[in-house]
Amino acid sequence: MERQPVKNDISSYIIQSQEEEIKRIALELHEGVGQTLYSLYTGMQFIGNAVEQVEMKGYVSDMAELLEKTIQEIRLLAVELHPPTLTTLGLLPAMKSYLKLYTSTYGIEVELETSGKEIPLEERQRITLFRVCQEALANIARYADTVKAEMTFAWQFDHLSIIIKDNGKGFNIDKGWHQSTGLAAMKERMHLIGGEWHLSSKIGEGTVVELYLPFI
Length: 216
What we know:
Keywords: ATP-binding, Kinase, Nucleotide-binding, Phosphoprotein, Transferase, Two-component regulatory system. This protein is α+β, with helices and mostly antiparallel strands. About 60% of the residues lie in helices and about 20% in strands. It has 6 helices and 5 strands. The chain has helices at about 5-50, 55-80, 85-90, 90-105, 125-145, 180-190, and strands at about 110-115, 150-155, 160-165, 195-200, 205-215. It has a 5-stranded mixed β-sheet. β2 (about 150-155) and β3 form a beta hairpin. α1 packs antiparallel against α2, α4 packs parallel to α5 (about 125-145) and α5 (about 125-145) packs antiparallel against α6 (about 180-190). The longest helix has about 45 residues, at about 5-50. It starts with a helix and ends with a strand.
């Protein structure tokens, strides 16, 4: 029989490898593809200023506008994959930055409340908590049918608790939620950093995801 610690080590290694690849892709999108498209955009602007024919000037302007929109979409995607603030500033600033992107993308306003003094977390913990929160918010956008949600960070000297709540349509929690790969991944990620994950939901009343991370 396979020992649980070995299984956990394998799962942790796979997740870490995935995160490293996601970080690489995000950096390439922002610094590589994004910068190349920006160079094309400035070139199109230069051409547009030099062209005298009205019809051609309008065409070049439309192309420049399309490039600008594409650049913005790529930058937003890069931030969603791996926000730079997660590494430089920590979990809470990264979450605040992501919520702005989330609201502009899905039209769902998330009220964020915090209590206590933020405690610096290990990189693995920061990434895990961010990914689990990200998945919970994605589920709200996909299934909750609501325009509002709440997120609470409660910092204590010995633990951090995070609650993500919506007042959407909810679902019957007894009908095999564990079969959802997204929900199962959230639980597994929290388990791998020594944390806990709890889910509750009622039809017509919304869904609550609770995260608990002890500071050992």
